[in-house]
Amino acid sequence: MCGSHLSGVTKNRDVMSEELIATIESELLPTAEDVSLTVAGEPFLTPKIARFVDMAEKSQSALQLNTNATLIKDSELVRRILAQASVLKISMDGLGEVYESIRVGAEFATVEANVALLVRLRSELPRDKRPRLAICMVLMQRNLHQLVDMVDFAHRIGVDRLEVAHLTAFNDDMDGESCRHTPEKTDDVLRAARTHADQLGFRTHLPPLMNGKHLDPALSAKIRLAAKEVRELSPSRLERLRDTFRKKRRAARWAKKAGGTVPCQFLNEGVFVTLEGDVAPCPMPGRPIAGNLLKTRFSEIWNGEVLSEMRRGFLTNTPMECCAHCSQNLARFVPSDDKTIRP
Hints:
The chain is α/β, with parallel strands linked by helices. It contains 16 helices and 9 strands. The protein is globular, with a radius of gyration of 20 Å.
């Protein structure tokens, strides 16, 4: 289910060079609010993970990690990561045997215990140091029937939310698992999960129905979730909330000057750096490479033609193909060109 795995990146087990790490530390970290160790493999397998944690601690950047939680243990490193992280996401695509049939080689009982350990270790941190914990699930034919149970599981084990995404079929072999083949059944399950999450007052991010319509929480659930957020506000979360409002104001001023908005978070706020130093706007399939940090300064890449052209595409309603059909299109941008309108 991972483009990096299918491309062979994770199979090579390459490690980022010290030269590139030093460049990232000097050019990106001084102004970085978040450092995400994710996408190209399991972060707890890299021999340099402690080096990245050091960098985040020195720059006071918040860590974000996606992990399969198979290697979590009560260690100094895990405790440091939790103390420095703003969010830690755990990939779990089902329960019991269904999970083990998807995550081949992993044991559900072990991962369940490791997630419970993360919840416990987080609870031991000062309130202002506690990161958000989320379980992420890729929805497919094999686990569709477990979605409501996954809402229960995530709520019961003590994470903050469940995030669900439709399977991206990178090749024909994967297409059989896509929920697009059973649209009515999929929509019924998504609606049931939405209803159950609202009843529990548990934050659950669901993918859209098969017709593209999003299932937002009921008004009563929104009120309960908002009240819970207020109760759990800490100084650090309050500061991040202020930062969010400041960024929105800056984006609004920029949009006014530019004559339109760019609804992509990646193009506005960050980039993806590969193990070789290539800078891409995001980790999504089909995206172009904007430059290489070992050859070009980051400021020149950020303001360069590739990223500028991608932003310009949104402003002129002629986005690049990779943007027009992006599964991370959270702003629900729909281009006017009949050839790129999604069904």
